[in-house]
Amino acid sequence: MRYGLRVAEKFHGTKMNCRLVNNRPYEEFEKISEFSEAYKLIKPLVEKWGGWMVMNRTFYKWSPALCKWLTEKGMIYKDNLTDSVMIMGARFMENKQLHIGLFDGDPIRCLDFAHIYGSKKGVNTIHCLYPHNLIFIEKALISYGFELESAPFIVMEVNL
């Protein structure tokens, strides 16, 4: 602890260049627009992802208010074929970067969907940050073609 701050979490970051891909649509993924449905889908994944979500390098602790905001912004998706769930989008620079806040279920289907979505939007890169101890997420991202960022992201907090 220094100046009252303590380490809240360490994150690893990954990124991938988004190249033009097959324009096949993923109709099975639907945008979730009802808060109650979104909350029901996301709540079980909160602990699995360490209680955090990162979007545009802003680090959020999970809360119902965050889930409501994500729902209102149209960032929560469900794959009706595999019941996979994704949170993705951007708070700013929407036409340059796509950020994956969370994914669960079939990682290949989720990452294919993100890649196709990003390609259609014309973004340059796709990013995903996750708590450093969640190796299963890292393995899925690296095997898909994401590259690790050069240094960890350290989040400090103080309780006032």
User: Share of helix among residues?
Assistant: 25-40%
The residue ranges in which pLDDT falls below 50 over 5 or more consecutive positions are none
Structural class: alpha+beta
Order of helices and strands: EEHEEHEEEHEHEE
- The number of distinct β-strands equals 10
Q: Per CATH, what is the topology?
A: Aminopeptidase
Using the 3D structure, state the CATH architecture: 3-Layer(aba) Sandwich
- Number of helical elements: 4
Main β-sheet, in a few words? 8 strands, mixed
How would you describe the shape? Answer: globular
Distance between the termini: 14 Å
Count of all domains: 1
Report the top-level CATH class.
Alpha Beta
Q: Strand percentage, roughly? A: 25-35%
CATH superfamily, called what? Gcn5-related N-acetyltransferase (GNAT)
- Radius of gyration over all CA atoms, rounded: 15 Å
**Taking all residues together, what is the mean pLDDT?**
89
